[in-house]
């Protein structure tokens, strides 16, 4: 069972993560984080000494974790290969996105699974479970806390996990108070990228069930693709939509993702070089908010 507070984890510890059952006989000692959100989760728990490497950094590490981050080896700019994982003798791999486990040698379950057979533990953030039926109906603050509790139990740092949850709860409370004090309510759409869909002409936006929706709601905004029972509601964490859909919803603000591989300025240039987009009031006003991609995934920043 999962321990909490200042109790010690009792091993063997059985975890069922996204339907994948595994047993930990001791805390991982050579963990590899495959996405920035999970990297910052482990660093927030003071686990840099138990990390053999990191991968796929989207942008700048949160300054409060930068010193600890520099102590950990960077294995790859994107996902670490199987050879790189074996080279550092990884005993635990954790990720925000299922794509980290999409290659056959790294599959977490099934007859061709290689990780658990090699005694390498895994943990995937639940809003991206391989089986969509196992994902939470909608990401909430509790989704963040449950992740922290489970990681804390796996690494036997339950007291640190409790302190981190208390800190994040305080941050959520402060944000909600600040939003109430402003007296304002904004509608918003988060634009992650341009060029999705079969024709490559779609727009990748934050949908109604993942971390993006949770973050917008916590900031006092209404995610126009996250309004339940509306015609515009989109399932999952992200969705590919048309320009017409976004323009018709006419958000007060457009949040633009800033990532090393896709700058917010590229999106702005695209919008301002299209007659259809230039007619949209929010484009004419240039009502944009730039946020780093790393802040859009579940992480201690939430």
UniProtKB/TrEMBL annotation:
Residues 30-302 form the Fe/B12 periplasmic-binding domain. InterPro entries: ABC_Transporter_SBP, ABC_transptr_periplasmic_BD. Gene3D superfamilies: Nitrogenase molybdenum iron protein domain. Pfam families: Peripla_BP_2. This is Fe/B12 periplasmic-binding domain-containing protein. The lineage of its organism: Eukaryota, Haptista, Haptophyta, Prymnesiophyceae, Isochrysidales.
């Amino acid at each position: 069972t999962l321990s909490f507070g200042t109790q010690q984890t009792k091993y063997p510890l059985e975890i069922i993560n996204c339907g994948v059952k595994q047993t930990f006989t001791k805390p991982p000692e050579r963990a590899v984080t495959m996405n920035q959100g999970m990297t910052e989760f482990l660093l927030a728990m003071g686990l840099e000494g138990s990390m053999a490497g990191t991968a796929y950094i989207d942008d700048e590490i949160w300054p409060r974790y930068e010193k600890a981050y520099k102590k950990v080896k960077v294995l790859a700019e994107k996902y670490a290969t199987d050879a790189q994982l074996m080279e550092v003798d990884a005993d635990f791999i954790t990720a925000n996105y299922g794509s980290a486990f999409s290659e056959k040698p790294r599959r977490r379950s099934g007859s061709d699974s290689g990780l658990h057979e090699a005694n390498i533990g895994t943990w995937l953030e639940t809003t991206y479970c391989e089986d969509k039926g196992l994902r939470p109906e909608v990401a909430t603050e509790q989704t963040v806390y449950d992740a922290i509790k489970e990681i804390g139990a796996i690494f036997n740092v339950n007291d640190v996990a409790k302190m981190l949850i208390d800190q994040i709860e305080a941050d959520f409370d402060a944000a909600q108070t600040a939003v109430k004090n402003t007296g304002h309510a904004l509608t918003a759409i988060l634009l992650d990228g341009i060029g999705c869909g079969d024709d490559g002409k779609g727009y990748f936006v934050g949908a109604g069930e993942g971390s993006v929706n949770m973050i917008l709601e916590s900031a006092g905004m209404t995610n126009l693709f996250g309004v339940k029972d509306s015609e515009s509601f989109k399932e999952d964490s992200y969705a590919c939509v048309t320009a017409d859909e976004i323009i018709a919803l006419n958000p007060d603000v457009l949040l633009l993702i800033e990532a090393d591989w896709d700058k917010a300025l590229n999106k702005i240039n695209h919008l301002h070089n299209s007659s259809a987009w230039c007619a949209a009031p929010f484009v004419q006003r240039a009502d944009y908010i730039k946020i780093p991609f790393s802040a859009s995934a579940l992480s201690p920043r939430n």
